[in-house]
Give the backbone structure.
Amino acid sequence: MESKISVRNLNLFYKNFHALHNINMDIVANKTTALIGPPGCGKSTFLRALNRLHDLYEGVRVEGEVLLDGANIYNDKCNVMSLRKKVGMVFQKPNPFPMSIYDNVASGPRIHGIKNRKRLDEIVEMSLRAAALWEEVSDRLKYPAMNLTSGQQQRLCIARLLAVEPEVVLMDEPTSTLDPASALEVEELIYMLKRNYTVVIVTRNMRQAARVSDYTAFFLAGNLVEFGSTGQIFTTPADRRTEDYITGRFG
Ligand SMILES: Nc1ncnc2c1ncn2[C@@H]1O[C@H](COP(=O)(O)OP(=O)(O)OP(=O)(O)O)[C@@H](O)[C@H]1O
Ligand SMILES: [Mg+2]
């Protein structure tokens, strides 16, 4: 199995607070890995470490390595702009830009220098199709994105990300603020994405983790307690703490 991202002895500190303890994990290419664990265990912190989002915060110190296709993203030579293009992020609350559906999806390619109208049209259509949104919006691409339902907005944010051709898609509880029907739409999309992308998703919803992911990582207090195939973690966890968590005894 090809590992897309190899995390080696990763430690992360918020000033004096040791938030991630010596994490080692191999994230498999073109599969979905779910990060689970109780509030405050470090899921979001770990996710942000995978595309150096912590660079934007004050007082965060990272030790260890995150190898993307074998190259350490924390190496001084790493170009953070091209890293974030390769490793994109979807957040909890859909955050479309206050502009049209079309311009939302075209914004990334435009930043990366694509100006040709026909090419942009193609990218917008391809990305909206890949995000399972094209059929619903193809006749109103110039409408404000803010008028879409929350599920459509989240799929639009995913389309916006896919438009810059990422290789890895990071998602931090992408359905947690959505109504159940919208959440299901987005979940179905996440399930489809793994054919073409390496997906890492934080979720508090155990059924969602079991449905969408191939691998599951269980975090507790900044430690990676257990990592394995989702089937194994959910049926025969090796660690008692994993079992207690997935059976709902805490968190
Ligand atoms: N910017 C920050 N500065 C200082 N401490 C932080 C910061 N962000 C997170 N922490 C702390 O790091 C620990 C891990 O937080 P993190 O947000 O990664 O947890 P989480 O597993 O995503 O939790 P949740 O399920 O609530 O989203 C927590 O103790 C949190 O208080
Ligand atoms: Mg979080």
